[in-house]
Structure formats: C-alpha cells, structure tokens
Amino acid sequence: MKNRIYLSPPHMGNNEIKYIQEAFQTNWIAPLGPNVDCFENELCEYVGIDHGLALSSGTAAIHLALKYYDVGLGDTVFCSSLTFVGSCNPITYLGATPIFIDCESDSWNMSPEALQKAFDGALQQNRMPKAVIIVDLYGQAAQYDLLLPICKKYNTPVIEDAAEALGATYKGQQCGTFGDVGIFSFNGNKIITTSGGGMVVSNNKAAIDKMRFWATQAKEPEIHYEHKEIGYNYRMSNICAGIGRGQLENLNEKIRIKKAIFQRYQELLIDLPVKMLPIVEKSELNYWLTVLTIDGECNTSPITIIKALEQENIESRPVWKPMHLQPVFSDNKFVSSNPIISEELYANGLCLPSGSTLTEEDQKYICQIISSCFE
Ligand SMILES: Cc1ncc(COP(=O)(O)O)c(C=O)c1O
Predict the structure, then answer these.
(1) Does the pLDDT at position 147 exceed 70?
(2) Which residue from 29, 3, 36, 1 is spatially nearest to 215, judged by alpha carbons?
(3) From ligand 1's centre to the CA of 25, what distance in Å?
(4) Count of Cβ atoms closer than 10 Å to residue 265 Cβ
(5) What percent of the chain shows pLDDT beyond 70?
(6) Does the CB atom of residue 187 touch ligand 1 within 6 A?
(7) Above 90 in pLDDT, residue 32?
(8) Cis status, amide bond into 339, omega within 30 of 0
(9) Which CATH code of 3.40.50.1970, 3.40.50.720, 3.40.630.30, 3.90.1150.10 fits the domain covering 252-373?
C-alpha cells in the first residue's frame, strides 16, 4: 500500500533543529527561555502587533482571553457556529454559555446579519454577551468591515480566533490583529506547528500582562509562593518555541506552496460540479486547507468521496460540523442566517489533502479518485 497522504501534516524546515539544539546546549529545557521570547517577538513582528504570549494551545489562549474579558458563571458569549470545538469549549470552562452564530456564504465566516440579529435578541432579553468570538475559518479572514462596527456599537470585545489563519490578510491587514485580542494555534495540523501550542496577541499590554500572570499559575511577585487568584499552567516550552521559530521562517513559502495546491485542485477539478471555497474581495488566504463544496443535486456526496479516498490510504474530511448541531451543545441557542448556511456547508463540504509536501503526482491521483466518484 502507498504511504498515507494526510490532510495537513507537519513539515519541518532547516532551522527548527538549530533552535532546539541551542536550547539543549544552554539547558533551557523549560517553559520559558530565549526561544519563547524570540518566538513571541518574531510572530508579533510578522503580523504587525505589539504584544504576544506563547501558550500550550490555541484553546488555552481563548480561555485566557475570555477570562480577561471577565466571562464567568451565567454569562453568554457569541461564537461562530461553523468552527472547531476548541473555539467554544473554553466558554464553558468559565461557566458561561455559548450562543452560536451562523455564517455567510461569501467567506463561510460569521454572518453580519445573524450577528446583528443575535444582538437584537440579547437587547430584548436584557442579556448582552460578554464577548464575541469571530473565527477566521480555513485560512480566510471574516468580513471585519461589517462585523466590527456591530460589536463596537454594543461595546462588546472581540476575540479573533485566527487559529487557522496565520499569514492570511484582509485589506492588507494580518489575521489575528482585527480583534481586541487575537489567537493562533500551532497544533500539528496547522500551517506552522510547534507540535502543540498557541499564542494570544494584542496591542493591549495590560491584557497580555494579565494573561501572562494567569498562564504561570498566578504567582504574585513575592520571593515565596503567594497566590491571590486561580491560575493555569499554560506556557509554551522553550523547546516548542524553538520549533515555532524555525517554522515561522518558512511561513511565506508554505503559503506560496499551499496556494499552488489550491489552484491545481481548481484546475484539475474544473469539469466537476464542485465549487472552491469562495474568496472575498481584498482577502488573501493562507490556503491552509483546500476546501470545496459539491453540488447537492449531483450523484455523489462528500462521504462517498472520503470513503473512496480512504480506500487508497488518503485522508480527507467533511467541513466542520457546526457547533449548534453537536450533541453537547444541543440546548444552546443558535442564531441563523436565512437560509441556514453552516448546515449546507457541512452537508456538501469536503477538505482535501493540502500538506506543503504534497506532490503534483499525488494531487493528480487524488483528483482521479474524486472524478471517478462522479461517474
Ligand atoms: C478554529 C480553531 N479554533 C481553535 C482551535 C484550537 O487550537 P488548539 O488545538 O491549539 O487548542 C483550532 C484548532 O485546533 C481551530 O481550528
């Protein structure tokens, strides 16, 4: 059997090992250390923001951001429904309730109409959300020109979940810098990885300082161990940050390769009844994953294609199952677009192997298998 083709496997460059070796040689095998400081600075410089805090995961980053905005027991938080569960799980860690917002078909991100509808409902019930989590799905920015003024009108902080969108831009501005705070993930499947990790970024120094305090067990500045608040053990290790530094050096090259993969899929599948992820005007994706939808009227389905690819040892996936359809959130409120877009994308959407090591030959083979499902 051929080697497995994964959806988005890690791809190491030349310098990751150099930074890890430096950590070994200097005995900085610790959570914190020079690689952590450098990785924070280098990533902030790349996206154009003042402060960053490297953490053990993107989920931890969202958790701390929500805590900073004082989300607690009995509160509500608006969150994109079409996303990975890491976007909204931390809301529940704090005893609050996610209210899920549908997406729009232009970018597959949060619908401004549905967001407005959700605020109208919250006003009527006198139960305003403590924060809004807007996701930049599949490496594309949400339409911030439309979404941010709505949140501003109600004075509600925005946490930008750019876990999948490092390096993507909207009107020339980097993803992760639109919200009051932004978060990134460096999980193994992301465009750059630290094996596991995340970062929270902001121009608000006080916010990052407070989150740094909580991320290191809320240690008071005393010689002995003094604690007045509950904290977490959420920092990134100096080894993982070394991997991140090497990975970041190759981010632009990865985006270039992944864009070519997206375009090649587009060419190879041109005769089939499929539509690529739509790209909003003035949006530059990072092309983390090539995602498309299959015409709902045709004689095949994403699941049929996923199974056909799996038989050839090739990994593919449906589009994220919306959070409002997840059994664990069956009692949560969902504010829909008209018609409901996220459910349609889940029914018809397919994520294709998009690793930066994917060969042209593999891509042709994948497309042959996909084409055969339409015969
Ligand atoms: C949109 C989104 N949000 C949050 C996360 C959580 O990040 P992590 O896995 O680093 O905790 C992920 C991915 O893993 C994600 O895709």
Answers:
(1) yes
(2) 36
(3) 32
(4) 22
(5) 100
(6) yes
(7) no
(8) yes
(9) 3.90.1150.10
